[in-house]
Amino acid sequence: MSSWSMFCGTMHRWVSIAAAANALLFASIAAGEEGDACATAYEQGQVLTRKGALVRGRAELRLCTNVCPSALAHDCEGWLAEIERDIASLRVSASWSDGRPLPRMSISIDGGPFADARRTEPIEVDPGRHRVVIKSEAGALEEVVVEAPRGSREIPVSVVFPVDVASPPAARPLWSRVLLGGGAATLAVGAALTIAGHVDRRMLEDSCAPYCDPTRVDTIRSLWWAGGISAGVGLGLAGVGLWGHLRAEPGSSSATQPRALVVPLPMRGGAGLALGGVF
Description:
Elements: H1 3-51, H2 54-67, H3 70-86, E1 88-96, E2 105-109, E3 115-117, E4 123-125, E5 128-136, E6 141-148, E7 155-161, H4 163-166, H5 174-207, H6 214-247, E8 259-267, E9 270-278
Parallel strand pairs: 1-7
Antiparallel strand pairs: 1-4, 2-3, 2-5, 5-6, 8-9
């Protein structure tokens, strides 16, 4: 065997040995880190539970069941079952003084940071007395102190915000905005037809009056009729839409809608409009 072959064989053995040593080193480091996490979770889970901090203790015990050996994990599972039984929960609701529920709110418990909350989700807390602060979307605050007995579930916590303090602006119904827009557009059409009629009349007066073709006179009269009716209908629609827009109250539903009747009336030299209905 040549010296070069012996050298290559020796190097191969040393590389293999180094790779195995590195693997053992990394495995021991990982095992050490996992062992430290297990020891911390095992200890802190018990300490927090004895202090009554069940929510935080539960998080540590859950970690214990995942990273600790089976014997220690079995202990954590038993303590975890006891904590799940003893943890309390709150169901927080908030409304305006006129009865409308708050669609969105933020909640702070025992001086903690505010967090967005939904009225349909219970909030888990440690047994004992808690200071609950609810903040509306507009920034108004209401506070309540609640006692949470051990193991009690979904304790109702309700607060009421005064409407005149931080109520959101009135919700304007869609139908009022539609009528306002449609009325404005119809008014514009009526104005355009009326102006067109006056322009044609001026042209006839300058060119053929008083011996103009009757059909051309009838055309102008038709423009005025159409313009008057369009303007009247637009005015009626815009009026009803404006009424609904101004009348809208916060939280009002669209169940009760106004019923309007717009009737064009022929008049001497033009057209008129009758507006009636239930408001």
